[in-house]
DNA sequence: ATTAAGCCTATCGGAATTATAGACTAATTG
DNA sequence: CAATTAGTCTATAATTCCGATAGGCTTAAT
């Protein structure tokens, strides 16, 4: 399971992507509309800002906004920022690599190979899922629902 | 990341699968050879027994053995037993389903769809990875290594 | 009866997660 | 330039989960 942080971050980012280019949005607005505890959301948005994805403006008329284009931000980036590796075993990640303590020989570990397959597929899918595709899909889903 | 329990369980199961049909194996043997804390391993093997995957014999000459055939036990089963859902969001699993608290409308959640794709691929891969294929792959990897 | 081995219950320490409080800083506006 | 608005920083509380251990109980073989 991913952390609440990652989930909240994704919801906040999609919220911002919906209004991309329309100026800063208040933390309090995002918090209310997305049902996220405001103080918690503050730390999350700060992290996103420090990683270069978001920008902020202080004072009246301030708030947060997307600094990158929606198509340049994908789910993999967000998960890695808040939850670390996407892989399910430390020995199958590249940037968060760690040896499994109990493992006798990584080179002949068949379990490792199985988890490597899953990691590679997951990363591939998550990289294709950008804020742009998410917002677009949302629209499609909305239309479908209205027809019912 | 998966829990140590799942990882230890998989290592223990592969160990038992290597000697499938050759009678019970001591907890202490598995613990030593697979570098697993024995007391911890006891609880794990019990869970595997209660789920029907393993059988046990008490007393002298006792130990644990595979009750199911190696090709009938896959990684998905093991992960679900110890870590619950394979999905990364509670709203994309079937047997462990829970609504995301903050979610306004599941039907139009584009994030949900993205995570559903990942879940489906992961489950597909994990179901294909059985104790049989793991043991076989191990042999292949060993041969490859010896050639070097 | 003795001994070997798995079974059961309880519990502990530590880490991570989720969340909150409160003071501080920067920018806007009248 | 004072007042207000809104993001930033530091600290810490509350919970939950995980990995691990202890110790006694039960069962089966010899």
H/E topology pattern of chain A: HHHEEHHH
Shape of chain A: globular
Structural class of chain A: mainly alpha
Oligomer: homodimer
Number of helical regions of chain A: 6
The name CATH uses for the topology of the largest domain in chain A is: Arc Repressor Mutant, subunit A
User: Tell me, what is the CATH class of the largest domain in chain A?
Assistant: Mainly Alpha
Q: How do the strands of the widest beta sheet of chain A line up side by side?
A: 1-2
Q: What is the CATH homology-level superfamily of the largest domain in chain A?
A: Winged helix-like DNA-binding domain superfamily/Winged helix DNA-binding domain
Indicate the low-confidence ranges of chain A by residue numbers.
none
Number of strands of chain A: 2
So, CATH architecture of the largest domain in chain A? Orthogonal Bundle
What is the number of independent domains of chain A? 2
User: Mean pLDDT of chain A, rounded to whole units?
Assistant: 95
Helix content of chain A: 40-55%
Q: Could you tell me how far the N terminus lies from the C terminus of chain A, measured between alpha carbons in angstroms?
A: 32 Å
Kindly provide the radius of gyration of chain A, computed on alpha-carbon positions and rounded to a whole number of angstroms: 18 Å
- What composes the largest sheet of chain A? 2 strands, antiparallel
């Amino acid at each position: 399971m991913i952390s609440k942080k990652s989930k909240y971050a994704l919801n906040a980012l999609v919220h911002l992507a919906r209004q991309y280019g329309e100026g800063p949005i208040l933390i309090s607005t995002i918090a209310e509309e997305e049902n996220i505890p405001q103080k918690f959301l503050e730390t999350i948005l700060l992290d996103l800002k420090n990683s270069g994805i978001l920008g902020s403006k202080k004072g009246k008329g301030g708030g947060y906004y997307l600094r990158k284009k929606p198509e340049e931000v994908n789910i993999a980036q967000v998960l890695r920022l808040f939850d670390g590796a996407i892989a399910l075993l430390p020995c199958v990640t590249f940037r968060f690599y760690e040896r499994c303590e109990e493992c006798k020989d990584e080179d002949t570990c068949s379990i490792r190979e199985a988890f490597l397959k899953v990691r590679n597929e997951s990363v591939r899918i998550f990289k294709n899922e950008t804020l742009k595709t998410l917002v677009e899909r949302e629209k499609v889903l909305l239309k479908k629902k209205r027809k019912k």
